[in-house]
Fold this sequence. Notes:
Layout: H1 9-20, E1 31-34, E2 39-42, E3 45-49, H2 62-75, H3 90-103, E4 107-111, H4 114-125, E5 131-135, H5 140-148, E6 152-156, H6 161-170, E7 177-182, E8 184-185, E9 190-191, H7 194-203, E10 207-211, H8 226-229, E11 238-242, E12 252-256, H9 264-267, H10 269-272, H11 279-292, H12 296-316, E13 329-334, H13 337-350, E14 352-353, E15 355-357, E16 367-372, H14 379-396
Parallel strand pairs: 3-14, 5-6, 5-7, 7-10, 10-11
Antiparallel strand pairs: 1-2, 2-3, 4-12, 8-9, 11-12, 13-16, 15-16
Helix pairs in contact: 2-11, 3-11, 4-5, 6-7, 12-14, 13-14
The structure holds pyridoxal-5'-phosphate.
Amino acid sequence: MSDLFSKFDPVIEQRETLLESGITDPFNLVMERVESPTVAICNGRRTILLGTYNYMGMTFDPDVVAAGKQALDDFGSGTTGSRVLNGTYVGHKAVEQALKDFYAMDHAMVFSTGYQANLGIISTIAGKDDYVVLDIDSHASIYDGCAMGNAQIVPFRHNDIEALEKRLKRIPEGAGKLVVLEGVYSMLGDIAPLREMIAVCKANGAMVLVDEAHSMGFIGENGRGVAEAQGVIDDVDFIIGTFSKSVGTVGGFCVSNHPKFEILRLVCRPYVFTASLPPSVVATAATSIRKLMDSADKRAHLWENSKRLHAGLRQLGFTLGTQEPQSAIIAVIMPDLEKGAAMWEALLNEGLYVNLARPPATPAGMTLLRCSLCALHTEDQVGEILGMFAAAGRATGCIS
Ligand SMILES: Cc1ncc(COP(=O)(O)O)c(C=O)c1O
């Protein structure tokens, strides 16, 4: 019998080598207590959180928490069913209405995760004989949505407008075309040139889906994302998003103005064949989304945090993923996994949690320390964070 697990041997070996060096496992951290969106207790120590997607700090918002508790009392702990059978409660309708209001769009469909939203929408709308054209740095859920469907997949170089145009022009006349883009690319924290790309898509008869997972709530005048910030939201056919980042809970969605959109509720398998979100989750999400509509001050403060951290890290001598801060994600590029893991551990020992990211999640084989800021990080905390980076960077030889 051949062992089906032998294909994992290279990963097992890489992991064992790393742990044999005595380093704390970067992928097995336990949060013993979470005190706020910016502070947790890890290994018995107060730790500043700089590696969550809690961009707008909604997880401890008193109104959000109260809505969840009330829904738990009123509707119980779960729906135990699909949206198309017994799993649609008033709360699911209310969160879809909150999304329609937030984006000023006609339709909203809520999934159990953002991953499932991409899986469902992409695999359902792009069928046999259609083409999906996607940025090569797309999130795993986008690739998995492509893999689950039957369309032809055409990747193009990251953020390359000309490459996108060339690929579109090569597609046979009359074929269905879906271009999938992200507002913010989560590994390096860079944004897409959506205005130019969407113009190319429209000129070549393609529909456009933009995943705004990392921009919702923060980027754009109303927090609708990069498409709003670049003035092209009306040309986007489908926006995908998640509740697991700025909204502060779990869940995913698609919003659209397509007149036939509602049929997806019957034909989209990752929507139909899974249980709907618990009532407490949709209640927290709806409350959070409505509060995000009115959060201009928080958005401004988050931009300040992002600019300060980016400038401070550059000044310390770190190499960053972008020349200028483009989002709430600042990626620090490490020379290799060993150095990256050592730096990650040194930061943790200083009392700072960041994300260690490595291939295949990262582009071009990079090891990254990904910092994601929160609107509730104070100016003092950003100062503390920079002090920790200076100390850990010198201790590990990452900076001189
Ligand atoms: C671009 C992008 N899309 C979708 C998702 C999936 O979101 P969720 O956590 O809701 O499954 C993520 C999660 O990290 C993401 O970065």
